[in-house]
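quick q for whoever's on today - can somebody do inverse folding on this one?? i tried earlier but teh output was garbage lol. tokens:
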């Protein structure tokens, strides 16, 4: 992994601190994608978390940035590029966490303060802004097909080829784009007609469809495969990974042992509040 990153950045390998054991506990509790990985893949995920955080600043406004904040930001970044072990977000320097939803001027409490995530352009190029509570909500409710952290990092992936057009050329050869865009056109039409369970915001444009569909893909893969098999297969090819192992679609009884490995009953551990 480091060979490619070193080549891009022209830097010596960083000396990374020892991985804190409580960080694994946070990821097990909060990130389904990590929780269902093998022990070996968890180690790789952890290494990629450390590399991401080494090169990316995570800052906040009036509140302090916690380790959990940093870990959820890093998980949001790594999940969509898990199938590409040498990926580096060269177009990102800083992630800003704000205390609530905001507008394009990053203001709170205004009539248009409804943005929960935004990739910076112009003076904000190289920056990503997230509402902290919505970042956490994206991981605490892993059944709603909505994760703003993943959504915004998908935009960064899309923009890595210089254009936010709903097709990540750095992940997939351009020849694949024609059938992809035709599929997107049909799916957007279905959303507009009320014939889809893909979130309405996905009909905004092709870039937003790609980000919204990606949230669905990583949160509810079994449902996506059942409801939208062609879209599922296309996203599987784009992201180069099999996400059906994600256990979120498996029904767990309240009294069963929690899948996070805590030894507690599911209802007393990771079961979402009703």
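ok took a stab at it. sequence:
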């Amino acid at each position: 992994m480091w060979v490619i990153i070193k080549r891009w950045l022209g830097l010596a390998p960083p000396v990374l601190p020892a991985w804190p054991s409580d960080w694994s506990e946070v990821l097990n509790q909060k990130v389904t994608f990590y929780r269902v990985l093998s022990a070996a893949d968890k180690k790789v995920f952890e290494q990629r978390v450390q590399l991401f955080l080494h090169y990316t600043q995570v800052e906040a406004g009036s509140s302090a940035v916690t380790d959990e904040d940093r870990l959820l930001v890093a998980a949001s970044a790594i999940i969509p590029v898990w199938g590409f072990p040498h990926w580096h977000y060269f177009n990102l320097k800083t992630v800003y966490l704000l205390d609530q939803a905001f507008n394009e001027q990053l203001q709170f409490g205004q009539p248009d303060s409804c943005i929960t995530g935004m990739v910076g352009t112009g003076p904000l190029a190289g920056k990503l802004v997230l509402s902290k509570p919505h970042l956490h909500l994206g991981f605490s409710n892993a059944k709603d097909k909505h994760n703003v952290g993943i959504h915004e990092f998908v935009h960064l992936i899309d923009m890595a080829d210089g254009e936010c057009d709903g097709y990540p050329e750095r992940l997939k050869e351009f020849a694949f784009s024609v059938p992809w865009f035709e599929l997107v056109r049909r799916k957007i039409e279905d959303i507009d007609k009320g014939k889809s369970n893909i979130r309405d915001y996905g009909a905004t444009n092709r870039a937003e469809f790609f980000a919204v569909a990606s949230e669905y893909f990583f949160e509810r893969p079994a449902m996506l495969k059942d409801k939208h098999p062609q879209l599922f297969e296309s996203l599987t090819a784009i992201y180069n990974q099999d996400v059906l192992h994600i256990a979120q679609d498996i029904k767990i009884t309240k009294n069963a042992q929690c899948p996070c490995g805590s030894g507690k009953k599911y209802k007393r551990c990771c079961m979402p509040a009703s």
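fwiw The first strand starts at residue 57 and ends at 60. also The beta strands are 57-60, 94-98, 117-119, 127-131. so keep that in mind when u check it
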